[in-house]
C-alpha cells in the first residue's frame, strides 16, 4: 500500500494539525506546511497524497483564503476531491510566560504583556477577552501569523517574556509555554469544520446509505456583472427540485474580470434523479459547474452546528445570498415562480 502523506497548516499543534490527527492517526505521515497555497501545491506535485484544510468556523463563518484556493483547485485536472469532513472544537488560550513580578492571584496578571500574536481568525473569536484585558490604547501590539501554532513558536523564542499567543492548549505542551488564561474564546461551542482532500477514487461511493447523509460539493460560475442575476435563478432551481443546501458562499471567479462563482454543498449525490435534473437545468442556463467532491457528512457534530445556526435548506440559502448581495434578486425570482 502506498504511503499516505497528509499536508496540513503547520507548525505542529495548530487546529488543522488536531483535525489531521483526528482523521488519520496513527496510519499516516503528517507533514506541516507554512501556508494554504503550499498545501495545495503539495497535492499538485504529488508531495502529499491528502490534505486537511479548514472551510468554516461557527463564530467567523467561511475561511475565505481556503475557499478561494479550493475554487481554483476544482478547475485543475480532477485528481483530488473532498473525501471527508470533520469538526474540531476550538478552545483558545492565552499562552506565554507568567509575570515574574507578580504573586499568584485568582485572575491572571497580564501587565507584562506588550505584544500579542495569533492567526487573524482568532482575534474576532476572542474579542470580549481582548477588549477587557488589552483594550485599544493600552500599548499592546497585535501581530498576525500564518497559524496559531506559529504564534506559539514566536512567543516561545521571545526570551523577554513580554509577548503572548492565542492558540490551543496543545500548543502549550508542544512549545513549553504557560497557560496565562484558559478558554478565552467568546463562544463556548466554537467549532471549525475541516475537509479532507484525497484521490477522487476515495469519494463518497456507497457511503451515506446508512445513518449519515452524503454531501456533494460543487461550484457554479458565471461571467460578467450582467450575468450575476443568473445565479439567483440557478439557485431557485435547486430549491424547486428539492435539493437541500448545506453550505453556500459567493466568491470572485478568479479568472480575471467580474466573474463570480457560488461554492455549494448539498445533501445529494450525483446519480440521484432530482439532483441530476437540477444540474442539467443549471448548465442549460449557462452555469459552469466544477465538481469539488462527494463525502459522508460528519455525524452528530455537524447536526448540532446546524441546529445552533437554525439551519435548514432555506435559511442557509437566504443567509448565503444575503452575504453575496443577491437576496433581492432571489426574492423577486421566487415570487415569480410561486405565481
TrEMBL record:
Signal peptide: none annotated. Pfam families: PDT. GO terms for molecular function: prephenate dehydratase activity. GO terms for biological process: L-phenylalanine biosynthetic process. Its EC number is 4.2.1.51. One of its GO terms (cellular component) is cytoplasm. Keywords: Amino-acid biosynthesis, Aromatic amino acid biosynthesis, Lyase, Phenylalanine biosynthesis. Residues 5-199 form the Prephenate dehydratase domain. Pathway: Amino-acid biosynthesis; L-phenylalanine biosynthesis; phenylpyruvate from prephenate: step 1/1. CDD domains: PBP2_PDT_like. This is prephenate dehydratase. The lineage of its organism: Eukaryota, Fungi, Dikarya, Ascomycota, Pezizomycotina.
